[in-house]
User: Which sequence fits this backbone?
């Protein structure tokens, strides 16, 4: 019996394989033939689920963003500084506790073709706007024009951890989130003091 009639789990296997390969070797080096082998199906069967390589990876990148948005929306903390810490922990949780989708989005998005990135940018922008709004709430004295750069600095601190942090180590995700949050807040306050003294 041909595997071209695979049910939804077949599509999920292809998506999972694509996310894993993106993390391991990037967009250009990943082929549909590899993904089919990883998913345990024939190469032509990938097209039963996705019309093209581009469509497949758009789905992977979008899922990575969806996981981050779900993590962001799960935070319900009133105190502004504690809320920031909870969001940092949620973002790190999305990176390390939800498979390869978020890691693939962080490491491989900018190596994807422009047409693939263009399909994902609106979802990325929406997530980034949530963080800009959060920073406005937590640091009301932070000029609006500095929020995007401030967010990028925080994202850099969080996202690069996938290159060196290991869950099996002595440092937990809670510890990591606390350290990043503390250093970020201290940096914001120090920057504000320096600017005020000028």
Assistant:
């Amino acid at each position: 019996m041909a595997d071209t009639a695979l049910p939804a789990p077949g599509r999920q296997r292809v998506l999972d394989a694509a996310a894993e390969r993106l993390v391991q070797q990037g967009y250009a080096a990943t082929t549909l033939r590899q993904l089919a082998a990883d998913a345990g199906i024939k190469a032509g069967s990938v097209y039963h689920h996705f019309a093209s390589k581009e469509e497949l990876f758009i789905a992977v990148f979008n899922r990575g963003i969806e996981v981050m948005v779900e993590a962001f929306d799960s935070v319900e903390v009133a105190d502004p500084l504690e809320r920031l810490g909870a969001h940092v922990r949620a973002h790190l949780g999305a990176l390390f506790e939800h498979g390869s989708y978020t890691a693939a989005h962080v490491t491989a998005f900018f190596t994807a073709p422009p047409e693939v990135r263009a399909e994902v940018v609106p979802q990325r922008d929406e997530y980034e706007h949530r963080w800009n709004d959060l920073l406005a709430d937590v640091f009301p004295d932070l000029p609006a024009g500095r929020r995007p750069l401030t967010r990028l600095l925080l994202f850099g601190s969080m996202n690069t951890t996938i290159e060196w942090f290991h869950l099996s180590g002595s440092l937990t995700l809670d510890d990591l989130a606390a350290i990043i949050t503390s250093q970020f807040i201290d940096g914001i306050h120090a920057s504000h003091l320096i600017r005020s003294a000028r």
Notes: The chain has nine helices and no strands.
